[in-house]
Design goal:
Shape: elongated
Order of helices and strands: HEEHH
CATH class: Alpha Beta
Number of helices: 3
Strand content: 5-15%
Largest sheet: 2 strands, antiparallel
Number of domains: 1
CATH superfamily: HIV Type 1 Reverse Transcriptase, subunit A, domain 1
Radius of gyration: 17 Å
Number of strands: 2
CATH topology: HIV Type 1 Reverse Transcriptase, Chain A, domain 1
Strand order of the largest sheet: 1-2
Oligomer: single chain
Length: 83
């Protein structure tokens, strides 16, 4: 139960700082807490499954776009909180 409380606390802090936001996306990644040397808990996200389907090189993406007539722009930002 204390791990669940810690997870809720850390998620609330990240929401308040606007590092994360609520989502209804069908996509997600497993979350776990890892104890740090000082005894506090670090929130970790396991992106291994996502990494398996992520295009590794921009050249590969460009090759897939050859002959396409519709393009989209995605603005993506990652914020990593410091400890």
């Amino acid at each position: 139960a204390s791990e669940l409380n810690e997870l809720k606390k850390q998620l609330e802090e990240l929401l308040e700082k606007r590092f994360i936001r609520q989502s209804v996306s069908p996509w997600g990644a497993p979350v776990l807490l890892v104890k740090k040397k000082d005894g506090s808990m670090r929130l970790c996200i396991d992106y291994r499954q996502l990494n398996k389907v992520t295009i590794k090189r921009i050249d590969d993406l460009m090759d897939q776009l050859v002959g396409a007539c519709v393009f989209s722009k995605i603005d993506f930002e990652i914020r990593i909180p410091s400890d």
